[in-house]
Amino acid sequence: MPMSCYSSVTTVRLDAIKDAETPRVHSLPCEIEHDGPAEVSAYFSATAKERKHEKTVSFRGRGLKGQEVSCPKGYTGLILQEVHKPSSDQEDGVLKVSSVFNKFTYWNLDTPPSSDDGIVMAMSWPQVANAIHAPLED
Fold this sequence. Notes:
The radius of gyration is 19 Å and the shape is globular. By secondary structure, it is α/β, with parallel strands linked by helices. The longest helix has 16 residues, at 118-133. The chain has helices at residues 40-43, 118-133; strands at residues 10-13, 26-27, 49-51, 54-59, 62-70, 77-84, 93-101, 103-109. The protein has 2 helices and 8 strands. A 5-stranded mixed sheet has the order 2-8-5-4-3. Strands 1-7-6 form a 3-stranded mixed sheet, with no helix packed on it. The relative contact order is 0.25. InterPro entries: RNase_H2_subunit_C, RNase_H2_suC. Pfam families: RNase_H2_suC.
């Protein structure tokens, strides 16, 4: 019995990057079951109290502690929007760039931000990867 292997490809259209918005970006410690535009300012006020590089804010009555993080040097963050959603795993998908950013604020639930947070460590990965893959010097 012949076996076949299907794989789909997701294409990212970069042609819209020059017209992309540059919004304030926040990474929240929750899952929001909604796709599409939302009036974020009606539900999340980024008015934060700042002290020692830490921001505090309330979201739906829960205290959040956050910190602003910059993208690694030479990198730009992209927010992608689905243009064509595949109807099966054999069909290709298409995404387009809707927004770009160079920094964002990430939020923890009740826990102060630290260098051990996964998102902070991820931002240092390009530098670590360059060191790992750099040619060895004799």
